[in-house]
């Protein structure tokens, strides 16, 4: 029975790659192209969330969803009022990306690229999402100067990611990266504060209707976070479970999104595992 709780037996996240060919190299080139695109966008403060790629003949179709961080939005607003012409520098990342792009085009014999981009920041302008952001901001504001010291833009991005997670626009892997980035730079004395903060956020996600009358039905019914490592700077490594709601890990019919990631800190390497149960 314990094998059912394995990461491979639970419904894992998969790559939406539709290959209309029997050549296996198309998958490898498409995967490398997507991973390179993720790194380039991440350095530009843009997160690539969900994507779908299709190779049909000599046409390459790419549909993806992106999220602009607050720092990127401020940068774009600042450049909007400047009349100077911005020239892109030929950095190492641009060279690597262009090299992989043209190599992929040459191998696949692609004559046409079709891109479809959806910006998820527009979803946050809806009235119900603004009410959710206001609720999370008022309840988590006491942790602003404790866990998010000198990272105010990251605090707002974290709240936006929670709203996108409730709507099903963000998976467990992307949300765990945000949690890992928060946990990475914490002092060992702040680990207990992080546990309290995660329990507060999980309680708000599951029971947001108790605080404000928001006409919104979330699909999330349970969250669980497992942290393994030298918690609070102790000599021996131990584990800590944080759970809100139900997580049916012994059933194949339930939709449980699971993700794992390692975080390198000043106190050693920590392993984080996140479970999200959706109906």
Structural account:
There is one protein chain. This protein has eight helices and eight strands; from the N terminus they run βαββααβαααααββββ. With 279 residues, it is of the alpha/beta class. The protein folds into two domains: 2-120, no CATH class; 126-278, 2-Layer Sandwich (Ribosomal protein S3 C-terminal domain). The strands form two sheets. It has a four-stranded mixed beta sheet with strand order 1-2-3-4. Strands 6-5-8-7 form a four-stranded antiparallel beta sheet, with helices on one face. Strand 1 (16-19), helix 1 and strand 2 form a beta-alpha-beta unit. It is globular and about 55 Å long. Mean pLDDT is 82; it is low at 83-89.
Strand order in the largest sheet: 1-2-3-4
| CATH class term of the largest domain | Alpha Beta
The oligomeric state of the chains shown is single chain
Low-confidence stretches: 83-89
Shape descriptor: globular
Q: What is the rounded Rg?
A: 21 Å
Number of domains: 2
The SS-based structural class is alpha/beta
What is the CATH-assigned architecture of the largest domain?
A: 2-Layer Sandwich
Order of helices and strands: EHEEHHEHHHHHEEEE
User: How much beta, percentage-wise?
Assistant: 25-35%
Q: Please tally the β strands and state the result.
A: 8
CATH superfamily of the largest domain: Ribosomal protein S3, C-terminal domain
- Helical amount among residues, as a percent range? 25-40%
Number of helices: 8
Distance between the termini: 23 Å
The CATH topology of the largest domain is given as Ribosomal protein S3 C-terminal domain
Q: Average pLDDT, to the nearest integer?
A: 82
């Amino acid at each position: 029975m314990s094998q059912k709780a394995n990461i491979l037996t639970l419904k894992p996240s998969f790559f939406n790659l539709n290959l209309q060919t029997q050549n296996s190299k198309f998958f490898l080139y498409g995967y490398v192209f997507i991973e390179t695109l993720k790194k380039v966008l991440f350095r530009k403060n843009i997160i690539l969330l969900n994507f779908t790629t299709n190779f049909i003949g000599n046409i390459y179709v790419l549909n993806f969803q992106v999220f602009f961080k607050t720092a990127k939005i401020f940068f774009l607003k600042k450049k909007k009022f400047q009349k100077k012409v911005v020239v892109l520098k030929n950095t190492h990342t641009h060279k690597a990306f262009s090299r992989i792009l043209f190599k992929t085009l040459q191998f696949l014999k692609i004559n046409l690229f079709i891109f479809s981009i959806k910006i998820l920041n527009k979803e946050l302008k809806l009235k119900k999402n603004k009410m959710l952001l206001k609720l999370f901001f008022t309840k988590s504001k006491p942790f602003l100067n404790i866990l998010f010291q000198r990272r105010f833009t990251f605090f707002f991005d974290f709240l936006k990611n929670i709203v996108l997670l409730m709507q099903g626009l963000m998976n467990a892997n992307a949300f765990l990266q945000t949690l890992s980035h928060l946990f990475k730079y914490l002092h060992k004395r702040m680990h207990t504060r992080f546990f309290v903060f995660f329990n507060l956020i999980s309680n708000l996600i599951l029971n947001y209707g108790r605080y404000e009358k928001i006409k919104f039905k979330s699909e999330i019914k349970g969250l669980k976070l497992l942290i393994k490592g030298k918690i609070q700077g102790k000599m021996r490594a131990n584990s800590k479970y944080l759970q809100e709601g139900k997580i049916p890990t012994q059933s194949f019919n339930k939709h449980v999104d699971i993700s794992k990631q390692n975080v390198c800190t000043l106190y050693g390497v920590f392993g984080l595992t996140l479970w999200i149960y959706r109906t």
